């Protein structure tokens, strides 16, 4: 009989180490795989929800959304009194934008915009300024204090809640020469030639008729008066077209009817026949940090929204839109348009 036939047969009934390993691995891998699959599915579903715009433009949407943003207080908590982007110098960008005070960057933007538009930044008597799309009036009050109590700044917005808050802050900050009212920028009640300065910061985005928007501002500006505007613009697509699908989300998430290019705005300003010395610039490099900086201030300090659970989804959506905005500007689909001009003397 062979030696093999005399070997004990016990080990034939014992499971091999390989089989044991595969069995345990299989048991352990299945819940992990299910968990990973579930997480991926949730992320995909979540992104699909976020990619579906929730606030498309309609005739009432701008006032409604800004009323809501003002009432919940989250935007004011993080952005302060200024619902516009900040200005970051080349040195600040080199050292890292997060080292710059987020609110101070907004004040710096106002200073730079005043300089760009040749707007007085010292006490002057009898100056009349119009702020078109004033938000809660931060810029209006800042300019009013800069030019002195003998001058007057009028801010207009579609949002009654913004006007109410702007007036409250004017009293708190003892700025009696800043006044606010609900008014449609496309149908202003002011007579022709009413203001020495017309200022418009990030309001053109919401205007359904850009030509009327420009012509109304030129109409109420006095001869010799200064006009200065900042607004988000799409890249000029007349030479190198691109699909508007790339901007559809940005239109319909933050209630924008459409964007136009810096070049098109300049043509509209010149087309009024009222203006001279029209100048333009693209401040995308100076402002692009604001988008992601806005997200980080919420990450570093969640107190602005953490006790408002009903606003969680809205905050997530806004954060997602901020990132989408950053990418659109970074890719060159969007530009930050700056404009200045002087009204011709009659």
Using DSSP, what is the number of strands?
7
**How much is the radius of gyration in Å?**
28 Å
Q: Tally the helices.
A: 14
Arithmetic mean of pLDDT = 89
Spatial gap, N to C terminus: 125 Å
Derived from helix and strand composition plus strand pairing, the structural class reads alpha/beta
Largest beta sheet, briefly?
7 strands, mixed
Walk me through the structure.
- The chain is of the alpha/beta class and 346 residues long.
- The protein contains 14 helices and seven strands.
- Strands 3-2-1-4-5-7-6 form a seven-stranded mixed sheet, sandwiched between helices.
- α3 crosses α8, α10 packs antiparallel against α14 and α13 (289-300) runs antiparallel to α14 (312-330).
- The longest helix is centred in the first third of the chain and has 34 residues, at 17-50.
- It is globular and about 80 Å long.
- It starts with 9 loop residues before the first helix and ends with a strand.
């Amino acid at each position: 009989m062979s030696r093999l036939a005399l070997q004990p047969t016990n080990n034939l009934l014992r499971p091999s180490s390989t089989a044991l390993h595969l069995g345990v691995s299989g048991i352990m891998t299945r819940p992990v795989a299910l968990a990973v699959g579930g997480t991926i599915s949730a992320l995909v579903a979540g992104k699909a929800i976020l990619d579906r715009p929730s606030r498309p433009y309609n005739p009432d949407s701008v006032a409604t959304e800004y009323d809501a943003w003002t009432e919940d207080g989250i935007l004011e908590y993080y952005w302060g009194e200024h619902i516009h982007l900040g200005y970051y110098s080349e040195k600040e960008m080199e050292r890292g934008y997060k080292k710059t005070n987020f609110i101070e960057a907004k004040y710096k933007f106002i200073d730079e915009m005043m300089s760009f538009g040749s707007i007085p930044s010292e006490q002057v008597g009898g100056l009349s300024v119009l702020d078109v799309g004033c938000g809660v009036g931060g810029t209006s009050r800042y300019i009013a204090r800069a030019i002195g109590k003998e001058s007057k700044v009028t801010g207009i917005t579609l949002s009654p809640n913004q006007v109410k808050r702007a007036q409250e802050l004017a009293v708190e900050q003892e700025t009696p020469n800043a006044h606010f009212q609900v008014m449609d920028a496309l149908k202003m009640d002011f007579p022709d030639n009413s203001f020495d300065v017309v200022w418009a910061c990030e309001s053109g985005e919401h205007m359904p008729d850009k030509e009327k928007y420009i012509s109304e501002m030129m109409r109420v500006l006095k001869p010799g008066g200064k006009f200065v505007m900042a607004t988000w613009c799409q890249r000029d697509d007349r030479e190198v077209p691109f699909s508007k699908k790339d901007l559809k989300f940005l239109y319909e998430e933050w209630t924008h009817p459409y964007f136009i290019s810096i070049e098109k705005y300049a043509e509209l300003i010149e087309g009024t026949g009222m203006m001279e010395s029209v100048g333009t610039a693209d401040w995308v490099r100076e402002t692009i940090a604001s988008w992601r900086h806005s997200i980080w201030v919420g990450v570093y300090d969640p107190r602005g929204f953490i006790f408002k659970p009903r606003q969680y989804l809205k905050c997530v959506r806004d954060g997602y839109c901020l990132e989408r905005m950053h990418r659109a500007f970074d890719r060159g689909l969007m530009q930050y348009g700056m404009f200045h001009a002087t009204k011709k003397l009659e």
